Amino acid sequence: MVDLLLGLGEMSEESFMGSVLIRLVCAAVCGGIIGFERGLKGRPAGLKTFSLVCIGATMVMVTNEYIIEYVSGGSGDPARLAAQVISGIGFLGAGTIMVTGANQVKGLTTAAALWVTAAIGITIGSGFYFGAMAGTAVVCGFSGLYALVDRVINGNSRYMKLCVEGADENFLVRLLDFFSEKQIQVKSLTRKSEYKWYKKDICAIVELDFGKRQRHDKILEELNRIDGIRFIHEI
C-alpha cells in the first residue's frame, strides 16, 4: 500500500492503475486549491482551469511512465514528455495576459501560477507526493504573503499611477494645480477616450513622482475632494 501511494518499487499493472487514480485525484485537489485562490480574486483562470492543468500534466507523466514500463519494455526517457508540458503550457498562460485601457498589464501572476501548477502536476505524476503537497502549500501561503507585502510597499512608494475622470476640462486644471501646490512632479499625463464611465467625460492616466515615499491612500483622499472629479483610482 505504501509503495502504491509513493509510487515506489515494482508494481503490477493493476497496482499501477490504482496509483494512477490516486495521482489524478491528488492533482485535481492541488490544482483546485491554487485555482480557488485565483478565482476569489476574479482572475480569468480559476478553480476549474487550474485543476484541469494539474490533471493534464499528471496524465502526461503517468502516460509516459506507462509507455516505458508496459509498452517499450523499460526503454525511453522518463522526462521527455514532462519537458513538453513545461514548454507547452505557455500558450495557456499567454491567453490570460491582457493590456487594459489604462495601459495596465494584467494576468501575469495567473500565467505564472498556471505554469507552477503544471509543474506540480508533473511532480504528482512522477509519484513525488511530498514535493507536490509542499509546493502547493508554499504557492498558496506565499501568494497571500506577497499580496500583503505588495500592498504595503506599493501603497507607500514615491511613485503613483492614477486613472482620473471628470465632467469637463476644468477638473484637470484644478488637478494640476493641486500637484503643483504639493510639489508633486507629473511624469506623464495621457488623455484616454476609451476608458470612461460617461462618454462626455474627460479621462486621463497620470503618473506621479512624489520625490519621497508617500502614503497613497492619503493622497487619494485629498484628490477626491477636488471639485469636478467624478472617479479616481490607483492603477
UniProtKB/TrEMBL annotation:
<keyword id="KW-0472">Membrane</keyword>
<feature type="transmembrane region" description="Helical">
    <location>
        <begin position="49"/>
        <end position="68"/>
    </location>
</feature>
<keyword id="KW-1003">Cell membrane</keyword>
<feature type="domain" description="MgtC/SapB/SrpB/YhiD N-terminal">
    <location>
        <begin position="24"/>
        <end position="143"/>
    </location>
</feature>
<feature type="transmembrane region" description="Helical">
    <location>
        <begin position="20"/>
        <end position="37"/>
    </location>
</feature>
<dbReference type="Pfam" id="PF02308">
    <property type="entry name" value="MgtC"/>
</dbReference>
<feature type="transmembrane region" description="Helical">
    <location>
        <begin position="80"/>
        <end position="100"/>
    </location>
</feature>
<feature type="transmembrane region" description="Helical">
    <location>
        <begin position="107"/>
        <end position="124"/>
    </location>
</feature>
<dbReference type="GO" id="GO:0005886">
    <property type="term" value="C:plasma membrane"/>
</dbReference>
<dbReference type="InterPro" id="IPR003416">
    <property type="entry name" value="MgtC/SapB/SrpB/YhiD_fam"/>
</dbReference>
<protein>
    <submittedName>
        <fullName>MgtC/SapB family protein</fullName>
    </submittedName>
</protein>
<keyword id="KW-1133">Transmembrane helix</keyword>
<dbReference type="InterPro" id="IPR049177">
    <property type="entry name" value="MgtC_SapB_SrpB_YhiD_N"/>
</dbReference>
<comment type="similarity">
    <text>Belongs to the MgtC/SapB family.</text>
</comment>
<keyword id="KW-0812">Transmembrane</keyword>
